[in-house]
Amino acid sequence: MVAVNAVCALQAKEIKGTVKDTEGKGVAGVVVSDGLNTVATDSKGRFKMDSDQDSRFVFVSTPSGYISSTLGGKTLFYKEIKDEVRKYDFIILDPPAFTKSRKTVANAITGYKEINYRAMRLLPRGGYLATCSCSHFATEEKFLAMLHDAARDAGVQLRQIEARQQSCDHPILWGVEETNYLKFYLFQVV
């Protein structure tokens, strides 16, 4: 199965976007709606529709052979329509554990990537990102690989300022995996 993901933006009274699979390829024939209007994506996964200015979300009907995108184990049936881009100087991402079992690690990494990608896109050059994970199932190697992927997809270069683990009042016991759970990174967008 391949997940589908929609990206959209409001321009005047027109909503444009693309529905892509996990490999970034457009998915044709996907039904997209703002709750009032419905269109299908073209051969490259693109869609365009006239819309009511009050529309806030686009709903995507998951086609046969695909699964819906998830974030933190929750299915995302819709995407918020973005009509302005805000920039922040410092973003802190300190979510709850996105996974508490090995079975859901892939979904958790996808969720971590999505929030980190979004944060990186909102930061200007010189902005700071503090990001962490408190799930021992999302290992340091997986978390770092996810951060590299998110930075690449966001089109940013990161300078690592600091990397930390939990404090000494939460000791890491060698041979007891679940005691090594906290990953914290501070980056600057360069």
Could you please describe the fold and organization of this structure?
There is one protein chain. This protein is globular. Helix 1 packs across helix 2 (140-154). The chain has helices at 105-122, 140-154, and strands spanning 2-11, 14-21, 31-33, 38-40, 46-50, 57-60, 66-68, 70-71, 74-75, 78-80, 90-93, 128-133, 158-164, 183-189. The protein folds into two domains: 2-80, Immunoglobulin-like (Sandwich); 90-189, Vaccinia Virus protein VP39 (Rossmann fold). It has a four-stranded mixed beta sheet with strand order 5-2-1-7, with no helix packed on it. The protein is α+β, with helices and mostly antiparallel strands and 190 residues long. The mean pLDDT is 82. It starts with a strand and ends with a strand.
